[in-house]
């Protein structure tokens, strides 16, 4: 009887292993937006994958094991199609899988090689710097790929699916996470507020895929804009701190850095970006 129990336990473990590591999702947190567009959340920054007849677009390539699993998942479905990679910004949690793909076109903001090497890695270097805007017709949609300039870093890129009304914003928008703000990479709180205001005016948005956190609607733009306004308010008027700590008590800190409520306030005070 014990022998049979061990056999059944072994079979159960094998089935569980195959369900994760077969040509399904490789354990990734895949969110299907429609039959062609997917968001793949976590294990680094959130990613997007768009499949069409002739090519595949990958928005951010994650890091470490997450990057490897994403590449396998994409290749299973791509079946040898041309790969376009779009990096929303330079940080490694969004770019460390670039080198895993075969002969891709890699598009990123116009950082230049020296800055990229200082923040990310040479093996993940883009081969097309984007200084302004690119319209990329792809399948049944047109992708607006725009360098919005200095926000989270010196050259952040967003991807807007014009027909689907879906916005991939990188770390310009987070959902219930505190941002990682780094003056050396170019973070600017005032530019966050202005850029997010521009999104509200410029785009009709049905879905937002943030850099970290769950997918949402246009409310994510407003929510993160308000976060930045509130943090500036606390920096200017410390008596409001208790109220704001309670308001953002459920916001999480990114696991790979020191991001959090205190870091945001400290950054604002240090950078001198308070609004008049």
Order of helices and strands: HEEEEHEHEHEEEEEHEHHH
Between the first and last Cα atoms, what is the distance in angstroms? 77 Å
What is the multimeric organization of the chains shown? single chain
Stretches with pLDDT under 50, minimum 5 residues: 14-22
* Global outline: globular
Helix count, DSSP H or I runs of 4 or more residues:
8
CATH topology: Metallo-beta-lactamase, Chain A
The CATH homologous superfamily is termed Ribonuclease Z/Hydroxyacylglutathione hydrolase-like
What do you see in this structure?
- With 276 residues, this protein is an alpha/beta fold.
- The protein has a single domain (26-271), classed as Ribonuclease Z/Hydroxyacylglutathione hydrolase-like (Metallo-beta-lactamase, Chain A, 4-Layer Sandwich).
- Helices cover 35% and strands 21% of the residues.
- It has 8 helices and 12 strands.
- It has helices at 2-21, 64-78, 92-95, 113-119, 189-202, 219-236, 241-247, 261-271, and strands spanning 29-32, 37-41, 47-51, 55-59, 82-86, 105-109, 128-130, 133-138, 141-149, 156-161, 166-168, 207-209.
- The strands form 2 sheets. A 7-stranded mixed β-sheet has the order 1-2-3-4-5-6-7, with helices on one face. The protein has a 5-stranded mixed β-sheet with strand order 8-9-10-11-12, with no helix packed on it.
- The model is unreliable at 14-22 (pLDDT under 50).
Topology:
Elements: H1 2-21, E1 29-32, E2 37-41, E3 47-51, E4 55-59, H2 64-78, E5 82-86, H3 92-95, E6 105-109, H4 113-119, E7 128-130, E8 133-138, E9 141-149, E10 156-161, E11 166-168, H5 189-202, E12 207-209, H6 219-236, H7 241-247, H8 261-271
Helix pairs in contact: 5-6, 6-8
């Amino acid at each position: 009887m014990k022998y049979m129990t061990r056999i059944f336990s072994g079979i159960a473990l094998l089935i569980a292993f195959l369900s994760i590591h077969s040509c399904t999702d490789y354990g990734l947190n895949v969110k299907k937006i429609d039959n062609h567009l997917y968001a793949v959340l976590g294990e680094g920054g959130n990613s997007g994958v768009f499949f069409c007849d002739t090519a595949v677009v990958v928005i951010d390539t994650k890091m470490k094991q997450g990057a490897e699993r994403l590449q396998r998942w994409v290749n299973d479905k791509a079946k040898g199609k041309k790969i376009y990679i779009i990096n929303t910004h330079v940080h490694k949690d969004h770019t460390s899988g670039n080198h895993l793909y075969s002969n891709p076109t890699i598009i990123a903001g116009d950082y230049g090689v020296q800055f990229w090497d200082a923040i990310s890695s040479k093996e993940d270097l883009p081969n097309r710097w984007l200084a302004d805007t690119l319209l990329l017709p792809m399948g049944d949609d047109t992708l607006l790929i725009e360098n919005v300039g200095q926000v989270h870093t010196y050259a952040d890129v967003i991807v807007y699916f014009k027909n689907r009304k879906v916005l991939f914003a990188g770390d310009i928008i987070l959902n219930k996470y505190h941002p990682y703000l780094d003056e050396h990479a170019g973070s600017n709180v005032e530019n966050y507020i202005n850029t997010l205001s521009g999104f509200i005016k410029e785009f009709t948005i049905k879905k937002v895929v943030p850099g970290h956190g769950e997918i949402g609607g246009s409310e994510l733009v407003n929510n993160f804009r308000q976060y930045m306004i509130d943090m500036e308010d606390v920096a200017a008027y410390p008596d409001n701190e208790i109220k704001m700590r309670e308001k953002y008590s459920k916001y999480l800190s990114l696991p790979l850095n020191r991001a959090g409520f205190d870091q945001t306030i400290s950054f604002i005070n240090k950078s001198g970006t308070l609004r008049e």
